[in-house]
Amino acid sequence: MTTFLYKATDAKGTIFEGALDAEDKKGVIVQLQGMGYIPIRIRQAESDTFSKLQRDFSKDIFSITRRIGSKDVLLFTQDLAVLLNAGVSIDRALSILIEVSEKTKFYDILREVLQHVESGYSLSEALAMHPAIFSKLYINMIKAGEMGGVLGPVMDRLSIFLENSQELKDYITSALVYPIFLVFVGGISIIIMLVFVLPKFSIIFADMGQAIPLSTRIVLGLSDVLRNYWWLILGGFCILYISLKNYRRTESGRIRWDNYKINQPIFGKLIKMIEVARLTRTVGTLMKSGVPILSALSLVKETAGNSVVVRSMEVVYEKVKEGENLSGSLQGEGLFPALALNMIKVGEETGQLEQMLLKVADNYEKSVRNTLKRLINLLEPALILFMGIVVGFIVISMLLAVFSLNEVPF
After folding, report:
1. CB 72, CB 111: distance < 8 Å
2. Is the pLDDT of residue 64 over 50?
3. Enclosing domain of residue 347
């Protein structure tokens, strides 16, 4: 049995907090429902006091400094879906979420949303007043739920959509942490050797009065350049970074850069799979929530992370608007793989396009994880080998020079 901490409410909207023992979160939900409570948040209790203090301290610090992110929106959506599906009114649900809100900035946003709802605005209209937090896609899904009278189920679909998107994003980020850390540590080690260690050897070699090995001269030359012209190298990198950043802000620069990324021999395929998964899940979720296909295709550009993909979806939108089916329109752009196109075509023929789009998204999200795992498994030893070769070259170059000391006549 595991101890879980919970926050729940009753039919009157009173907030309750406590702890329950259960096998999993579902067991806690069953117990709370048996007590007549509506569960809001459930989390596993920390068995370690230090971990609890560390979490509380981090929460206090970051609740003030960290901006509202996608995880905060996801948590809000999940909590609101639970309350709406339990029969709680929108204004009461928002009041409850304000009471349990742990983030100062999000607390203020929810208060403004509640004020607008109480003034007569719909939930979608109130959320639309904060475009920096709630995207057009988010707002339109809620609007479709309001128009169809199925806001609770739509919030459930929106929660699943955001959760799947966040999981994929977190997986990619966590998979890249170790390679980036490896490059950072290896780079720092090489710089320390070149800047602080090798100069001491160069004084010894300068007094030898004879030619030193070529590899040693190369390493000592790199050390001198790095020590004497580090400011020029750093400035050059800064200028290059700013120039590339400004170039990518232009329309032509952004298109060329995104086209370059998507056509890379190794990572280009991975980027395409990510875009396919993102686009199909977005369109499928929107259509399942009652949004027409043309509106869904128009909104899907909000989630595309590549300008080349955005332009392709604009072409697809125009073709579908003229009466062509979705699979044929996508095939003409050459972005979607053959398997995905065939699955979408089957969905159109069977009248289950929304379900098939979501299946395509599931398949390609799984493919992204598997592909990324294989790439990381290859990248990690490759980076270790590269760092070992560089460090080994430096060490061997120094040893060759040291051994050549034996040839100096006394």
Report:
1. no
2. no
3. 149-410
